[in-house]
Amino acid sequence: MWALFSRHLRMWLLLAIGAPIAAWLLGRIGEAIERRRGPNAFSKTLQAGSRFLERRTRGPLRRRPQPDPDRLAR
């Protein structure tokens, strides 16, 4: 079934659904490791991977940045 989708549709599906889930999973694993053993290179790498994927996600599962309340007050 996957082979029947066009290349652009497959890429969109990966970025819209796969990347946010992977980013969430990497972040959770990194946080769990930090809670158990403290900050280390592996947990920092997992969280950096999570942030990298969050910046590249598209579609309905993308996290939207919260507006800055100081800018809204002006």
List the helices and strands and how they pair.
Elements: H1 7-37, H2 41-56, H3 69-73
Instruction: Please tell me how large the radius of gyration is.
Output: 16 Å
* SSE series: HHH
Shape: flat
Average pLDDT score:
84
Strand content: under 5%
Category from helices, strands and their pairing: mainly alpha
Number of helices: 3
Largest sheet: none
Distance between the ends: 52 Å
Give the fraction of residues assigned to helices.
over 70%
Uncertain residue ranges: none
Task: Compute the number of strand runs.
Answer: 0
Structure commentary:
The radius of gyration is 16 Å and the shape is flat. Helix 1 runs antiparallel to helix 2. It is built from three helices and no strands. It has 74 residues and is mainly α. It has a domain at 20-58. 70% of the residues lie in helices and 0% in strands.
Short key terms for the protein model shown above:
flat; 3 helices; mainly alpha; about 70% helix; about 70 residues
Could you provide a short overview of the structure?
The protein is mainly α and 74 residues long. The chain has helices at residues 7-37, 41-56, 69-73.
